[in-house]
Write a structure and sequence with these properties.
The chain is mainly alpha-helical. Helix content is about 70%, strand content about 10%. A hairpin with a 5-residue loop joins strand 1 and strand 2.
Length: about 80
């Protein structure tokens, strides 16, 4: 298994001890968490951009609601996968 920094630089490389299915399961969990965290950042930035540009309040509140929903989902997933 290879660990990377957020910008793609390789940190370390370790051999995985165990079954390939276990490694695949771990990778799928990490992938799901990373995709959810990307959505959190996108909706947080979108909420700020909509507020800054003076858009309708329903778009701002909708974006903020989705941001909070994905934060709660991330917390649930992290506690479930731990």
């Amino acid at each position: 298994m290879i660990s990377y920094n957020w910008y793609g630089k390789e940190i370390s490389e370790q051999t995985f001890q165990g079954e390939p299915k276990e490694a695949l399961n771990l990778f799928q969990k990490q992938d799901r968490l990373q995709k959810n965290q990307v959505l959190i950042v996108v909706f947080a930035l979108m909420t700020l951009a909509l507020w800054w540009s003076g858009e309708k309040k329903r778009y701002i509140y909708g974006s903020a609601f989705l941001f909070l929903l994905f934060v709660v989902l991330d917390i649930i997933l992290v506690s479930k996968f731990s």
